[in-house]
Write a structure and sequence with these properties.
With 533 residues, this protein is α+β, with helices and mostly antiparallel strands. Helix content is 29%, strand content 12%. The protein contains 16 helices and 15 strands. The protein has a six-stranded antiparallel β-sheet with strand order 6-5-15-14-13-12, with helices on both faces. A hairpin with a 5-residue loop joins β3 (143-148) and β4. The longest helix is centred in the first third of the chain and has 20 residues, at 79-98. The chain is globular, with a radius of gyration of 23 Å.
Length: 533
């Protein structure tokens, strides 16, 4: 069913040290160029060998050598207005979805699209509970608004507009009362004793460690072993069914939606992505494959805070504008030019998951199905997820790259779908080999010498987390993590309030180290050989 993988011929690769140590090889010193031939002598005036390039310099040199001659056009509009739009949306979600106190939310959550330092430059958020909206005024008198739309969450209204350009829908959940179903389809937990190979005291210590100190602001922590929930705790005011800011963990959820469509025959993984804006003859973007998008290696030209050459003093980054711009995010992403050949350079750019969500919409609507209900029908109902909210832009396009909220238990359910090789209660949901694909180092990131990214999943290739290197994880701004450890058959979810992310990250690592003591390695769940090549 799936196309054979087509390997993109690349120039000589630069292999950077995993810990970002300097390379001493001639290839690294020359920014990826072949070593100088023995008879190609250096100028006689040179008395010393040039210092090797730093890993960052080598990374940038490789990208520069592949760069195409296209023009970057920054996002339009006032950056402070964009920050304020992000602030209004974050506040709207915190108040109307999570149920947080407005003053607490303004101080502690959602810094990614609404930086803390920018909040002091604008008015205090006005919470309109009757109209279910949040309004924030800029110094120039312009007001940015986010509107709560029920099952589509909170939507940033375009500047100067008072309504969205689509009709919100109610998304029915075809699931029984969770109290009547056993975990994981429901919330009734097993009362059986822990198996002898587990150490319950150490599991509890690990869970408690995730909440110490309080400055880490951990809001939820859930541990499952072989699918069974073995550890759980929540912060003040948070319960097992509280949807919390989850940010870019939504990319991994988006990967699941694409996987479902591939299994259904709507797409093939290695086919060119059929984006309508790329259909003109000779458009080089037509060579971008769906796999390139999942690998964060489309090559599209935007700016993102995660770029190795990002300048905070520069123009407002497109990566954030895709959240805050109040525009048709799908069209904006699809009209960016190429910066590099598709599949050649790995960069964490929101264009790629936005375009995968675009493909999801195209496939679903082509079949005459309701797009806004598709995630619930195709995925969430099938694995017991009841709290997930995927928010949209004003045109009704899912912003599944990071405007998503869900409870820790629901993220654990999604994590277990991946742990179980895409099979749930004996039913295959994701294609054979798809989990192997998303959890394997992406070729472009490997070529860049950064063994940290797969297919809308981060991987533990640099041992950034104190768990085995077979681990891979969903990761969202502010310390949101769903970690899958096949060698221990563990799924670990940590959600927290953004302000505590730095301290909370250290607490999370301590908790993981204790879990490694509490839960012995298991035989990895059998996975069929990948057919995704």
């Amino acid at each position: 069913m799936l196309m054979h993988r087509m390997r993109l011929a690349l120039p000589a690769q630069i292999v950077l040290a995993l810990s970002l140590r300097c390379q001493s090889s001639t290839r690294a010193a020359n920014g990826g160029a072949p070593a100088r031939a023995a008879n190609d002598a250096a100028p006689a005036v040179s008395a010393s060998v040039a210092s090797p390039a730093s890993p960052r310099e080598a990374l940038l040199a490789r990208a520069k050598s592949l760069e195409l001659d296209t023009v970057y056009v920054p996002p339009p509009g006032d950056p402070l207005s964009h920050h304020t739009a992000g602030f209004a949306k974050v506040m709207c979600s915190a108040v109307f979805i999570t149920g947080l106190d407005p003053d607490f939310a303004a101080e502690n959550v959602g810094y990614f699209t609404a930086p803390y330092e920018e909040r002091s430059k604008v008015g205090k958020p006005v919470i309109d509970r009757a109209g279910k909206a949040v309004h924030i005024e800029l110094p120039n008198g312009v007001t940015r608004t986010a509107q709560y739309l029920g099952d589509q969450g909170c939507v940033t209204l375009p500047e100067g507009k008072s309504e969205v350009y689509f009709k919100p829908v109610r998304v029915e959940k075809r699931l029984p009362d969770p109290a009547t179903q056993e975990w994981p389809m429901g919330d009734a937990l097993s009362q059986a004793p822990f198996p002898a190979q587990l150490d319950p005291a150490k599991v509890k210590r690990a869970v408690d460690a995730a909440f110490e100190p309080a400055a880490g602001m951990t809001a939820a922590f859930v541990v499952t072993w072989r699918g069974r929930l073995i550890g759980e705790r929540y912060g003040p005011g948070i319960a097992k069914d509280t949807p919390l800011e989850s940010w870019s963990m939504g990319k991994s959820m988006t990967a699941a939606l694409m996987g479902i469509l591939i299994r259904q025959g709507a797409y093939e993984l290695w086919q060119p992505a059929p984006i309508p804006e790329w259909r003109q003859a000779g458009d080089p973007r037509a060579r971008i494959r769906i796999a390139d998008l999942l690998h964060m290696s489309s090559g599209l030209r935007i700016k993102a805070p995660q770029d190795p050459d990002y300048d905070p003093a520069g123009t407002y980054p497109d990566h954030l504008y895709l959240y805050t711009g109040g525009v048709d995010s799908f069209h904006y992403a699809a009209t960016r030019p190429l910066q590099w050949p598709p599949g050649a350079v790995g960069r964490y750019h929101n264009t790629d998951p936005v375009l995968v969500n675009y493909l999801v919409r195209l496939a679903v609507e082509r079949r005459g199905e309701d797009y806004l209900s598709f995630p619930q029908r195709a995925l969430f109902d099938r694995i017991g997820i009841r709290t997930m909210v995927i928010e949209t832009d004003p045109f009704g396009n899912f912003l599944g790259q990071g405007y998503d909220l869900a409870s820790a238990r629901d993220w654990a359910r999604l994590g277990n779908l991946y742990l179980q090789d895409g099979v749930w209660n004996g039913e295959r949901i994701l294609p054979d080999g798809y989990v192997k694909f998303v959890s394997t180092l992406a070729p472009a990131w490997e070529a860049d010498g950064r063994p940290i990214y797969g297919g809308f999943f981060w991987i533990n290739g640099e041992s950034a987390l104190p768990v085995p290197q077979d681990a891979y994880f969903m990761n969202g701004a502010g310390g949101q993590t769903t970690l899958i450890i096949p060698s221990h058959q563990l799924v670990v979810v940590r959600l927290g309030h953004y302000k505590g992310s730095s301290v909370g990250s250290a607490s999370f690592k301590k908790a993981l180290a204790l879990l490694m003591e509490a839960v012995p390695p298991q035989r990895t769940i059998e996975q069929r050989p990948s057919v995704m090549k």
